[in-house]
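re the bet — no i am not wrong, look at it urself. input seq straight from the record:
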Amino acid sequence: MFPDMTDVVIIGGGLAGLSAAILLGRQGKQVCLFESNRYPFHKVCGEYLSMESWPFLERLGVPLSSMQLPRIQHFRLTDHKGHQLSVPLHPGGFGISRYTLDHLLAGMATEARVTVRDGTRVDEVTWNGKDFSIRAGNDCLQTRVVLGTWGKRSNLDRQLNRSFFNRPDPRLNDWVGIKYHVASTFPEDRIKLHNFPGGYCGISRVNEGRTTLCYLVRGDRLLEAGGQIRQLETTVLYQNPILKNYFESFPSLYDTPKAISQVNFEPRPVIESHILLAGDSAGLIPPLTGNGMSMALRSSTLAVPLICSFLDGKSTREQLENSYRKQWKSTFGTRLATGRLVQSLFGDSRRTGPLITAGRMIPGLASGLIRLTHGQPF
């Protein structure tokens, strides 16, 4: 049974939602988290985390140091003609599957007395001028604060008539993400990004001896392949011989790949109808930057102190929203703008080849772009 009124409802149980739930629960706030899937589950994600988030996860209680995770310190980029660019990663990152990490965090949220409702989709959020009504199936819940962390795309985006639906940029809109876990001999200390006509594919190691192979492709390419993923891979991805070798040499550990469609990198408001948005719901950074997971975690550290101040009567809702909007922009604005710029250059051989050439000719260019899409440890 739900209480008549709860402090915070979090919609979406990914990294942003779970970390915020843990922090709020440990502050003694009454929190209910909804997740449409049941833990543990796989997500379409590159599963590379930059080292900036390591201290935060260990403070939460995730035992990263004892998990023998791959430490990733080198990056290589190729185009489908075989041109390559290699760059050292400073301070680098580590690989961990979302299946493992989200499941750990969900358990920690429960320990923090958060009500975790996995396998439950929120159908409607209504603002009544003071508080919110949440409808999930036959259940209704009243709450003072809603934190939207539902990820790349949700039925609630359309319900809220979010602006990124209405101004599609073909360079940033309608991408499809496909992910595999494979068995491989891929080196633990590197991540590689391989371009093909219409997209790019990343590969790196994660825990338990697995390798994540995840690619992003324009939706029209999949349509041209009759909606068949295997047909898409053999006709399009195989144009990069490195990718052809991966798919023929590394057996999949999934019966079928995980997929998500209609991925959109358009700028997004961070507040909609008084709902605070965090993680991918507030701003989806292209996966080629390797920093979406850290941004999701960090966004919870921005939202939680402001939410607590509001719940404790130390600030008004207007102050809560204005402060969150400003902090989000100052923390992530440059990263997202740089990510959108780089995203527009990938998946098009006319642009990717010259970008690799420029990176080889101009020392520090690639490292500079990496710095612009990353932050300091938190």
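see?? The chain has a mean pLDDT of 92. told u. also DSSP finds eleven helices and 16 strands in the chain. so pay up
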